Amino acid sequence: MDTSESHHHCGFVALVGRPNVGKSTLLNALVGAKVAIVTPKPQTTRTRLLGIKTLPQAQLIFVDTPGIHRHPGSLLNQRMVETALRTLQETDCAAFVLDAEQGITGEDEAIAKNLVTLHVPVIGVVNKIDLVTKGELLPLLERTAALLPDREIVPVSAVTGENLEELQKTLIAVLPVGPALYPSDELTDQSERVLAQEIVREQLFLHTHQEVPYATAAVVEEFTEKPEKNLLVIKVVIYVERPSQRAIVIGERGTRLKQIGQAARAQLEAFFGCKVFLELFVKVAKGWTNSPSMLKELGL
Ligand SMILES: Nc1nc2c(ncn2[C@@H]2O[C@H](COP(=O)(O)OP(=O)(O)OP(=O)(O)O)[C@@H](O)[C@H]2O)c(=O)[nH]1
Ligand SMILES: [Mg+2]
User: Fold this and answer.
1) CA distances from 219 to 130, 135, 185, 238 (A)
2) Fewest C-beta in 10 Å: which of 6, 126, 137, 187?
3) Atom of ligand 1 nearest to the CA of 67
């Protein structure tokens, strides 16, 4: 294998698509580590984040983005859609992720129209093929090809790993020639604090329903390493918009918050490879999802 400078490829691959199509799952599968949180609920990812895959012949820098949709509602949701669209302006390649089970929606058609005007390569990635039959998949691939004329279409399953090798090859081929931009052991651009707050937010999404997960944010207030005890002390403030939501997150006699804390702690311990002392506080920040200053403070 020729891994000399002139044959090494490196670049950014933006993963874009509707909410819930599996962009973050795909990023984790391609990177080979969990760097982005994943839940069955739409609009899980709120910011742009990187997942880096370093190979002898290439470095692929995947950019996870919030789902693109037409009915943003809150200022937070508008910002999320803007973030995803802005990412497309500064990428080397766009991987347009579709959901094989749900099929092509009007929203997908609108995104595709936007993508074909870009001056970077666009690859259609039909994800979740483990959920459909071959007979269902073929017409879907044809329709995707019609949406993205002359672009490559790769059917995959981020969950079973089917065809991810093929997708990786296709992506490397369209990335520019150049040296790696990140050290080979770096998997993400997120700080340990941000990873910790995302792990807490993932559990908030999994343990609450309806509007509540969308009214929550998590912020790490303390992150102290105690190497002598092989211990990490992490304090996280969970923000909600209203007192009623605070009561829901805490649950009857604190049961829900306890479950969220236990699940998050297990994830944090696995991730950081040490014992974790996790403290959670729930505070009301009235209407934060529509407050420019609060969103700024939360880095959103
Ligand atoms: N069966 C199956 N499920 C998948 C696959 N990829 C993702 N999922 C599931 O789809 C749901 C959404 O996955 P995410 O990765 O959070 O989707 P996303 O596109 O990042 O969603 P947002 O961040 O909300 O835009 C989760 O329940 C995943 O487990 C797949 O290939 N097969
Ligand atoms: Mg996501």
Assistant:
1) 36, 46, 26, 6
2) 6
3) 25
